[in-house]
Each structure stands twice: as C-alpha cells, then as structure tokens.
Known about the structure:
Keywords (chain B): 2Fe-2S, Iron, Iron-sulfur, Metal-binding, Nitrate assimilation, Oxidoreductase, Plasmid
GO molecular function, one term (chain B): metal ion binding
Bound molecules: flavin-adenine dinucleotide, iron/sulfur cluster, FE2/S2 (inorganic) cluster
Distance between the termini of chain B: 14 Å
Strand content of chain B: 35-45%
Number of helices of chain A: 28
InterPro entries (chain B): Rieske-like_NirD (IPR012748), Rieske_2Fe-2S (IPR017941), Rieske_2Fe-2S_sf (IPR036922)
Protein name (chain B): Assimilatory nitrite reductase (NAD(P)H) small subunit
Oligomer: heterodimer
Organism (chain B): Paracoccus saliphilus
Amino acid sequence: MKKKLVIIGAGMASGRMLEHLFDAAPDLYDVTLFNEEPRGNYNRLMLSPVLSGEKTYEEIVTHDAGWYETHGVTCRFGEPVVRIDREAKVVHTNYRSAEYDALVIATGSAPFIIPVVGKELPGVVTYRDLEDTHAMIDAGIAGKDAVVIGGGLLGLEAAAGMAARGASVTVIHLMDHLMERQLDPAAGYLLKKDLESRGIKVHCKGATKAILGHERAEAVLLEDGTVYPADLVCMAVGIRPETRIAVDAKLEVERGITVDDSMRTTDPSIFALGECVEHRQQLFGLVAPLYDQARVLAQTLQGEAAEFRPVQTATKLKVTGCDLFSAGDFADGEGREDIVFRDPGRGIYKRLVLKDNRIIGIVMYGDTADGNWFYGLLKDGTDVSEMRDTLIFGPAFQGGGAPDPMAAVAALPPEAEICGCNGICKGQIVEAVQGGATSLDAVRAQTKASGSCGTCTGLVEQVMQFTLGDDFTAAAPACMCGCTDHSHEDVRRLIKSMGLKSIPAVMQELGWKTPGGCHSCRPALNFYLLAEWPTEYRDDRQSRFVNERNHANIQKDGTYSVVPRMWGGVTTPAELRAIADAADKYDVPMVKVTGGQRIDLLGVSKEDLPHMWADLNEAGLVSGHAYSKGLRTVKTCVGKDFCRFGTQDSTGLGIRLEKLLWGSWTPHKVKLGVSGCPRNCAEATCKDVGVVCVDSGYNISVAGAAGMEVKETEHLASTPSEDEAVEIITAFIQLYRENAKYLDRPYKWVAKVGLDWVIERVVDDLAGRQALVERFELSQSVYRKDPWAAHSTDRERAKWAPMADFTLEAAE
Amino acid sequence: MTQFVDIGALEDIPVQGARLVRTAQGCIAVFRTADDRVFALDDRCPHKGGPLSEGIVHGTSVTCPLHNWVFDMNTGAAQGADDGQVGTYPARVEGGRVLLDASALPRHSAA
Lengths: 812, 111
Ligand SMILES: Cc1cc2nc3c(=O)[nH]c(=O)nc-3n(C[C@H](O)[C@H](O)[C@H](O)COP(=O)(O)OP(=O)(O)OC[C@H]3O[C@@H](n4cnc5c(N)ncnc54)[C@H](O)[C@@H]3O)c2cc1C
Ligand code: SF4
Ligand code: FES
C-alpha cells in the first residue's frame, strides 16, 4: 500500500517539491493536492507579464491537467483546507476530508492590507494571484488613474504592468526611496528616474491616510494632504506568512510555521515549505531559497537525510528596461569599504561592499551584466584583494596583466569616450596635452572634457598622467568635503544646470564617493536644493543641524533656549505675560534679554518644547528662528515717534522688514538693524544689513560683522523711498541666498564676489532686482511658516518625548 | 543572557534620526539608519556630554551636535583624530518592532 501524502497549497514551492519527489520516487505516495485558488500550479512570478499583456495565463501554467493525471495526483482545486485534525491525521475542507500519513503545508503568504479608511471599497485590490491580476486588467484602466501603494518589487511590477495597459499610474511609497530593502538611495534614485521617464509618478515619503470614495475608490489621500485621483488602488505593501490553519492545529508558529533543517514542523508527520515557514528565525519571500526547500523536503519525504541551508539571494526587478541587481548586505558598517562607480551620463551606478577583502553586498543599476559574476564572488567568499583596483570594472578587466588602473587607461583605444557629457574621447585629451595643455584647467578649456558634470575629472587626470608621466601633478581642488571632489560653487551651479532636485540625485549625478554623505555636505545640499527649487524640493529634516531640526537653540547641557519672535523688538504687556507664564510653568532657570532685543528662555527640556510652543502660540507669539541659518532679528531704535532726533519711522521699518524676511532659509544666519538717525542706537552698521535713516531717506549698507571678526558695513544704496529700501534689501538677501556658499556670512560672500557686482544686480539693474524679489516671494510662499505651530500638535508632541522609559520600572 | 525587550515601533524613529530610552542610569539613544537598521548608544558624548541623539546620522556614524565629534555606531568609538568611546547596546528590528537588550537596562543590573 502506498502512503498517503496530502499537500495544502498548490504554489511555486509545492509544485517544485512534487517534481523532485516524482522524479526520484514515483510510487512512494498517493498524493492529494488542495488549493484555495480554483487552479493548479502556475508560475506566480510571471503574473506581471500577464498584467502588462506580454503573456497569457495559459503560457505560465507549470503543471497542467495531463501532468497531474500522469502522476496520479488527486486534485482538489478551489477547496481550501479549513482544519487539520492531528490526532486522527485528517484534513478537512468545507466539503470533505482526506487522511494522511504525511502532510505538507505550503500555503504561501497573504498580502498585507493597511488599515486605512476605505480599504474595503470596490476598486481596491492586492497583488498576489490570478484573480488580483484579472481585477486590474478587467478594470479597463486604459486612460484611467491608478494608484499603487508600496514601492517595493511587487508594487513596481504592478505599476509598470498597469502603465503598459495605458493607465496613468502613481506609486506612493512610505520610505525615502524605492525598494529600500534591495537598493541604496543612489540606485533608488535612478530607478525613480527611469520610472518617471515612462510616465509613472513616484511619491516617496508618502503615508496613506485614507482611500476616498462613495460607491467605489475614487482617490487616495496622504497624510501630507496630497490627493491622487484613483479609479483603481493596488495595495502592495508587504506580505505575511499564511499560518492560520497551522496555528489552529497548535503547531509551533512564530512569524511563520517553525520548521527544522529537514522542513519538519513540531509534529513529526507534518512538514511545511515556502513563504509560510520560518527557518531559524528567517522568512523567505523569493523563490530561490524555496526551491532549495523543495529539494530538501522531497528527500525528507523519501526518508533521506537532507538539510536546508539558506544562501544569500539576489534580486532583479522584472520591469522591462529597468536594469537593477541587488544581493547581500549593502548597508554601511564597521570595517566595511565601498567601491562606488557612477556614470551619470548613462545612468549607471555600481556599488560593491567589501569586508575583510570579500564582497558582502552588491547594488547595481543601469548595467547589471556583471551582476552574476560579482554574486558568484559573494557566494563563494572569494578573496578579492588581488583584483581590488579593477574589481568594479568586472571580469573583463581581470586576469592577465597587473591590476593597475593606469594600465586600464593605457589600454583604452583613442576613440574611447572619457567625458560623457561633452563626448570627448581619449585621443582628443592626449592631443590637447601633447599640444601643451598640461593642467586640468587647460585641458578643460581646450576640450571641454570634465567641464560639465565633472565626474570624469579623475579619469581625465589619469589620461593626462599617462600622457605626461611624472610631469603631471593633479591640482587639489577645494572640495566641499571628503564625500566629493566638487567645490560648493560647482555643486550649486550643477544643481541648477542639471536640474537636480533631491539629495540622492545630486549624489548620483555628481559622483559622490560615499553612499550617503556626511554631516557637513548634507545640510549644505539641503539648503542649496531648497533655495533653487522652493516649490518642488521637500526639506530633509534629518539633514539639518539640531537647532533647525528642533526649532530651538541647543545649550551646552543639552537643554534648549526658546526665543519668541518680537517683531522689530516691540512687544506688548499681553505677550510679556504669556512669556512670564511659560517661564513659570516650564520652570525656566533663566530669562534673559538677548543682544538682538528679544527675550530668551533658557534651559528648557526637549520634551517640554512642543508644550511651551503651544502656549506661546496661543498668545500670538511665533517661532523666533533665533537659532537658524535664516533671518534672526531686526534690531531697531525707537525712531521718530518718540526720539527727539529720529528722522524716519525706524521701528516701523524694522517690523516691516522682519515680517517680510522671517522664515526664509539663508546660507548662514542673517541679522539686520535699523537706526533712526546717525547716532545709530540700533548698532546697524555692524550687521549683515543695516539701515540708517537720515533726513533725505534711507542709507542701506551691508556686509558688516560683529562676531569672530568685527567689520563695519559698506554702503550699498541710498534712497528717499521706504518701499525702494525694502525692495533693495529683499533683492540683496535673495542674491545672497542664490549665490553664497553654505556657512558664508554675507560679509565673506561679498568679499568674494565684490560689492560692485552686488550693486550692479540689486541697485542698478531694475528688472533684475524685481526678478530677485519675485523669486524671494515665491520661496516665502512655501517657507514662511511658523514651525512651532506645526510641531505643537498632539500628534507631533509625542515624538519629542523618550520612546520608552525604564526609570519607573526600576523604582518599583 | 541577552533578553530583548520591545521598546516601540521602528516607524516611531525618524529615518536617519533617533529617539531616547530613559533608564535610571541615563538615556540611551536609539538610532535608525537610512536602510532601517537600529543602533543603541549612550546619549552622552564623551567630549562634553552632547546629546548624540540630536546629531546628524550618516551611514552608520553619528556626528555630535555640540562640537562635531563623529562616532561609529557599531563600536561607539570616536572617529578620526578624536579619542573617545560611548557605550553601545545590542538592538535589533523584528517585525517592525525595535528590540533592545534588557540586560543592559538598570532594572536588571539593579536586581
Ligand atoms: C506578482 C508576483 C511577482 C513575483 N515575482 C517574483 C520574482 O520575480 N522573483 C521571486 O523570487 N519571487 C517573486 N514573487 C514571489 C514568489 O511568487 C513567491 O515567493 C512564491 O510564489 C511562494 O511560493 P509558495 O509555494 O510558498 O506560495 P504560493 O506560490 O503563494 O502558493 C500558495 C498557494 O496556497 C494556497 N493556499 C493558501 N491557503 C490555503 C488553504 N488553507 N488551503 C488550500 N490552499 C491554500 C494559495 O491559494 C496559493 O495558491 C512574486 C510574487 C508575486 C505575487
Ligand atoms: S538712532 Fe537716532 S533716532 Fe534712533 S533712538 Fe538713537 S538717536 Fe533716536
Ligand atoms: S560634546 Fe560631543 S563633540 Fe563636544
């Protein structure tokens, strides 16, 4: 008598397992195969080509009726197993039962559905099986709007598939970049760019709040208020192992059904494999390891000893035209080194992570031809120290000859392209050098090589070195930081000329040498991007220095000081009362008047900040920005209303300027002063911008300093009209925002560009001045917000407190 | 014996940011990197006590907000020319939850 084998789930894993079993021992078992889907085994991976219309269902069936018949499999398709009776060794469906000697659970996993309002509306689908695929196709989405929630492997395949059917698709992804588990930010950026070039919108850092609609899904609402219209919503946010029947049968289940190395569960007659299992605390979501499990289980079922040992798996995205490859661990870590290669012109990015001279991680985008070769080195743990210098160039450059990068350059034919942006080949550079261009600048001037994005600079230098020999010494550029060879000025210029709109975009296109930058370049990039693209760029809070991130000034003991804004230094009894109340309520150890005529509440704990802000907000006070790289204060004197010497309303002008300029981000802090007469009680002539009112109008001077350096301002312009004074000052600030290097105060910047250059632009050129003012106002329409208000909501407040507190438990 | 306790959801920590865990012996900063790994370090910079939790996180390093010392979060060692060390604690992420080694918490060391 044959033994009875029952299998629950006709998926990828059980299908492969049956093949192995019948190949080796066709007569060992009578097999009954249950499946919840009304069909047998098919290639689930190929659902995407079915979705996009490149394949039909018939083409992806792996086991047809004939196959089951030949092998004597009793098929129970469309009949989910609802209960396992371990005592009696019987499984039950709603119609019948089946006895077993051995039972295999291969139920795969179930898509995760985020619990938002509207999730059950018609038109909301998941992506797992043929039904889901047909739901998307049948929605007739050509020309309609589809939203995919989740920018992982599955979500992107769904998006590409629907786009191929003519839908207009938006992908909402919670994280900073797509496929964050497989890709680093640089590769994620390239993928996003690729998808966008085929018309798929990508919204990263987007949290879904609700699905809107009456009869059926109509739109998706995000936490940030964005609404995307959607005739169809596909949720592809993740999966969890389908373990319900195993849990009910009291098998050991953690996240998945626990199995040992032979794929046996805690019941010796019951086995499990596929996405529903957990093996040594690990879950599996790709087929490669499941196929290994299938082989092991087939052997186990034949009574042979076999052990499942998971190996690293590699991932590719099956979206035509998006070439990516990822394997292993590509995070930064101790003792890990990166080899990064970027070719922005061709959209290529390759990164190898090495540890102890072995490859432990691979991320490739754009050119994945060598992926499997690298993957082989990774799996075998090959020592790569011998070929390190040329490793990134792949197998073609290995073997033979010394692994010398100069040799690689020497071996290039004259027509090999060196500078992708300008199409300059090696021969042209060699010619220029032989013609007398011995410095990089000279080569650049003659050939344009490395003159655009500049990422080929190193390569150009190598060509020069190879041509000139020892006569060549590369100039040390004043670069932004250790992460890049570009200077601040270059980076600013390239952000604009190349239309770079995110930090990963800058890092990729300009060839950053570190995967994610450092504390010195990130804040600078964040500022450059928001100054250049105020309406498109989204501020990256984590790239900000603590004072700007927490909207308060950090003190030496880690507490903060809070400085409410007092326009022009003027306040009211009511505001003073609110400040005094806040000082009492939050036990402020010191209340001090600052040098900029504001009141500083020192010594506030981080946790109290949002509560204090809420109180101050209620009294009409807003954030002081007393800490930001932005407008700090406008100091004023009392002016003509009260002072017997005053010539103009200096207080009023100060208030007007502060209300106009506050909230804007600048390369460094900016302070203003307005005095009502040359007695200069507001000390306006050592500020970044100072106004001294005189009988005939307003004298505007700029570029003063009263810090590490003390410097008097220089005269910028005089005007009889207050309006014009305000306009000139605004234009000056905007010019500074658009041109200065991050962390240069105006006096340093003016010294570099020359005061005449500034006067030409903000005083003489009227149209230019107005354009500067307009750009400033556009930016202010986005950034003139009180950060206190945004962060004192209940929801936000919780984030300012510790996430866990164990002091209380200790006291018990 | 390491025994991990759940301190909250990974989502509660901003990407490239940190949150605090308060213990009787001082605060522990729990960091989340760009690729969703977590590290737990004492929240006191050995230089002058700066709160590391407020530093800028880059790769698996964090820069102290007070005077820019940089620490490798794997080891807690100061990088470059600076010489210093902060305590580190085993931490990991499981099913979207952040787990911290409980034996590191005073509750246990006090017992
Ligand atoms: C669209 C798509 C594309 C993918 N692309 C890739 C890829 O490119 N590369 C890759 O490696 N992986 C890919 N995957 C993942 C891969 O398909 C899965 O890892 C694999 O199918 C899991 O195999 P399995 O046998 O464990 O489960 P499944 O193949 O999911 O099969 C489980 C079966 O069990 C049935 N079942 C569940 N409960 C019961 C019950 N109580 N009674 C009876 N039957 C039940 C289910 O209906 C299902 O048919 C993709 C997945 C999808 C959905
Ligand atoms: S600067 Fe002139 S107007 Fe202003 S307070 Fe002093 S003396 Fe009076
Ligand atoms: S306190 Fe951390 S660097 Fe000084």
